[in-house]
Amino acid sequence: MEQQFVVVMNHEEQYSIWPADQTIPAGWSAQNCQGDKETCLQFIRENWTDMTPASLRRAMATN
């Protein structure tokens, strides 16, 4: 059976994948995608269109 992953995101709105059978680390939260590695990476490609950390985007918006 192929390993399953979950897409996770941190407070800076940065994405990663994490093995579905392991506890998600502190500071990360599960997103609405779980499946094989390629499925999760495709979700990230479609949803993480701006790799700039959220705090930097907010700082740039105020200047």
Give the topology, please.
Elements: E1 5-10, E2 15-19, E3 28-35, H1 37-47, H2 54-61
Q: Note poorly predicted spans.
A: none
The biggest beta sheet is recorded as: 3 strands, antiparallel
CATH superfamily: Structural Genomics, Unknown Function 30-nov-00 1gh9 Mol_id
Name of the CATH first level: Alpha Beta
> What's the alpha carbon Rg, rounded to whole Å?
13 Å
> Strand portion, in percent?
25-35%
Question: By helix and strand content, what is the structural category?
Answer: alpha+beta
CATH architecture level-2 label: Alpha-Beta Complex
Mean pLDDT metric: 93
Shape: elongated
Count up the helices. Answer: 2
Domain MbtH-like: 1-46
Organism: Chitinimonas lacunae
InterPro entries: MbtH-like_dom (IPR005153), MbtH-like_sf (IPR038020), MLP_fam (IPR037407)
Protein name: MbtH family protein
Keywords, separated by commas or semicolons:
single chain; 63 residues; alpha+beta; Rubredoxin-like; 3-stranded antiparallel beta sheet; 2 helices; 30% strand; elongated; MbtH-like_sf; MLP_fam; MbtH family protein
Can you offer a commentary on this structure?
The chain is an alpha+beta fold and 63 residues long. The chain has a single domain, classed as Alpha-Beta Complex (Rubredoxin-like), CATH 3.90.820. 30% of the residues lie in helices and 30% in strands. It contains 2 helices and 3 strands; from the N terminus they run βββαα. The chain has a 3-stranded antiparallel β-sheet with strand order 2-1-3, with helices on one face. A hairpin with a 4-residue loop joins β1 and β2 (15-19). It is elongated and about 50 Å long. The relative contact order is 0.24. The mean pLDDT is 93. This is MbtH family protein. It comes from Chitinimonas lacunae. Residues 1-46 form the MbtH-like domain.
